[in-house]
Design goal:
The chain is mostly helical. 36% of the residues lie in helices and 4% in strands. The protein has four helices and two strands. A two-stranded parallel ribbon has the order 1-2. The longest helix is centred in the last third of the chain and has 17 residues. It is elongated, with a radius of gyration of 18 Å.
Amino acid sequence: MPMVGLLCNHRAQGRPVGVYHRMGDEIPHGGRTASNLEEGQKAMGINWMPWDSLKEAVPPAYTEYIGRQAKKMHACSDGSGSGRSWCGSQES
């Protein structure tokens, strides 16, 4: 299923915060992992998980983003299972 990505603007968004491995790691020439559980939960948009679960989670906003694309692709499918799409190709 072809997906459409978002453009990044790291200069505008600032230094990224990772939610993986362990808290407080510095990544040379890059970001860092969250300093504490609360920062990690805020970055992920999840406020109910401990670190060990949080670092394995898919952020709800990303799940929604992927789901919207999948729903649109399903709605545009020609129903044959071939992956062909009729969206945008019909004449008005």
